[in-house]
Amino acid sequence: MIAAFSQVLQIPLGDLCDVEGGNSAPQGEQYFCNGTVPFVRMRDLGRYRKTTCLDQTDQKVNDQAIRSKRLKIFEPGCILFPRSGSVALNHRAVLGTRACIVSHIGILQNFRANIVPRYLYWFLVSYDMSQIAKQTTNLDLVNFSDIRRINVPVPPLEEQQRIVAEIEKQFTRLDAGVGSLKRIQAALKRYRASVLKAACEGRLVATEAELARNENRRYETGEELLQRILKDRRERWNRKGKYKEPMMPHLPADEELPEGWAWASWDQVALSQNGRPFRSAEYQRSGFKLLRPGNLHISGKVVWTNENTRYMPQCRADENRDLIVRGRELIMNLTAQSLRDEFLGRVCLTSKDEECLLNQRLARLTPIIILPEFALYLLKAWHFRRFVDQLNTGSLIQHMFTSQLAEFTFPLPSLAEQQRIVAELERRLSLIEHIDAVAIKTVERVARLREAALARAFTMREIDR
Question: What is the pLDDT of residues 159-172, one digit of tens each?
Answer without folding.
Answer: 999 999 999 999 99
